[in-house]
Design brief:
Blueprint: H1 5-23, H2 34-43, H3 47-82, H4 94-108, H5 116-135, H6 142-166, H7 175-179, H8 187-206, H9 208-214, H10 218-223, H11 228-250, H12 256-268, H13 272-294, H14 305-324
Helix pairs in contact: 1-13, 2-3, 3-8, 3-11, 3-12, 3-13, 4-5, 4-6, 4-11, 5-6, 5-11, 8-11, 12-13, 13-14
Amino acid sequence: MKINKNYLIIALSLLTLAVLLVLLSTVGSVNLEFNEIISALIHDDNKLVTTIVYKMRLPRNILAALVGANLAVSGILLQSVMKNPLADPGITGVSSGASVAAIIILLLAPSYTKVLPTVAFIGGAIACLLVFVMAWKNGLKPGRIVLAGVAINTILGGVISFLSTMYSDRIQSAMLWLNGSLATKTWADVNMLFAYSIIGLIVSLLLIRSANVLQLGDEAATNLGFNVNLTRLVISGVAVFLAATSTSVVGVISFVGLIVPHISRMLMGSDHKYTIPFSMILGSIVLLVADTLGRTIGGAIEIPVGVIMSIVGGPFFLYLLRKRGNY
């Protein structure tokens, strides 16, 4: 019996993620032995270790995995809709739109943080729609999407700067969020994002056939009985939902939705039956490792994971842009 290579890669990556979730819980300002963690969690014989691992590192690692999966799948869905390998939640304005909506709540109505995911989704959807409208001219071209995204991101970045200046006395509480950070996150944050993530990721798996059909072109998709515009709208909605809800909890983290789908296609091909599940797992691994680097390489100073991803993702984006050639 011949084993499908792609299924084997997915299984190995899933095992890697499970191992990393445990192993990276040993790394931090206080390094722990693996047997200490197991003993503390099973026998509850070391309160300090239990507190560090169970209450601080484990929820943070799980949240990193959820956010990484959400952003990666959001990126690959946006790329399938736009037929543009350079699309991701950050470049298409989704993250910026969600950020503006969320920062308004954080600065002006902090008592309403429970509605952050909903408000962020609305903000991300509006920003994404604006990019679509600005980039549309006899169809969507990759170069126009990038330029429209840069324009929208610049405008929304100005709005955030304006709000930060006007409410400078309150901005300190939102600084970690603006930089995209998992610091101080708890089980409450995991619980807030978990339901949204499960819903969004399951729906994305149900859209695999639709995403594959879009690759055939509008005419072929129509001949197969698909309403192309409705399909694009639904897939875009799920992508915005995944990115915006993640942004509402941890802040702006760029380039996960750009790097991970590209690697997924390199390893798995173009079939979304493989690339979407693999992107979920790889996105979790990438953000988990990036967050661990952020909280360890600076010694006593923690570097937000959003900063780490920007340092890595910026050059990768330039590489892809150059590789794609002229538009």
